[in-house]
Design brief:
single chain; Rossmann fold; globular; about 200 residues; alpha/beta
C-alpha cells in the first residue's frame, strides 16, 4: 500500500502530472511559506461522477443496452472510496490538518475491475459475463492501494461507507434515476472512447 513516505514512480504522462503538481506545491511551501496541505486519494465512486469513469461508464452503458467494456483481463486492483467519504476526509484535512503535510485518503476498498464489473452486472439483473474486453491502456498500473493510517490517527477521520456492495447498489440507483444529469455528456464521452478503439 502507498503511504505518505512512498517515493513517486509515475508510469504514464497522466500520473507524471499528478506527481509534479504535488512537488510544485511542496516547493512553493518550502520556498515561500505558502500554507498548504496535500491530499492523495484512491478511486472514487458514487453520485455525480463523470460518465467517463469506470463505474459510471459501466452503469450507463448497461442502461443504454450496450455491453460494458473491460480493459485487458480486468485484474487491475483499485482501492474504492465513496465520494462522500472522500469529501469528509478533505474537509478534515482542510480544517484540522497540519500545514505542509500530506495525507492519503483511502477506505480499504480493494477490488479488481472484473469483480466490480460483475457486481454491477448482477445488481442490474444481467449475466456477470455479459461484457467485452478491450486492449489495456499503455502504462495502466496493476494496483492502487492506500494506507490512510496517518489521516485516521492524526485527524480522527473514518469512512462512513464501508460496505462496498451497498454503496455500489445506491450508486447504480442514482444513475438509473438521474439520467437527465449524465445523458448530455454520454455521447461525447463514448465518441472519445470509440476514437481510441475502446
Amino acid at each position: 500500500k502507498f503511504t505518505e513516505e512512498t517515493p513517486y514512480k509515475p508510469s504514464s504522462p497522466y500520473s507524471s502530472t499528478k506527481a509534479s503538481s504535488d512537488m510544485l506545491v511542496r516547493a512553493w511551501t518550502r520556498t515561500y511559506g505558502l500554507r498548504t496541505t496535500i491530499s492523495n486519494c484512491s478511486n472514487n465512486y458514487g453520485p455525480y461522477q463523470h460518465v467517463e469513469k469506470f463505474i459510471p461508464r459501466q452503469i450507463t452503458n448497461i442502461v443504454d443496452g450496450v455491453r460494458p467494456k473491460l480493459y485487458g483481463k480486468g485484474e487491475n486492483v483499485r482501492d474504492w472510496i465513496h465520494t462522500e467519504d472522500h469529501s469528509s476526509a478533505v474537509w478534515d484535512i482542510l480544517t484540522k490538518g497540519r500545514m505542509g503535510e500530506t495525507y492519503l485518503i483511502g477506505a480499504n476498498g480493494e477490488k479488481n475491475n472484473i469483480t466490480v464489473l460483475r457486481m454491477i452486472l448482477e445488481a442490474m439483473g444481467r449475466d456477470p459475463e455479459d461484457f467485452d474486453r478491450v486492449a489495456d491502456r499503455p502504462g495502466h498500473d496493476r494496483r492502487y492501494a492506500i494506507d490512510s493510517t496517518k489521516l485516521q490517527s492524526e485527524l480522527g477521520w473514518r469512512p462512513a461507507h464501508t460496505d462496498f456492495d451497498e454503496g455500489l447498489r445506491a450508486t447504480i440507483d442514482w444513475y438509473v434515476e438521474n439520467e437527465s444529469w449524465w445523458r448530455p455528456a454520454k455521447e461525447a464521452t463514448e465518441a472519445r472512447y470509440r476514437a481510441q478503439g475502446q
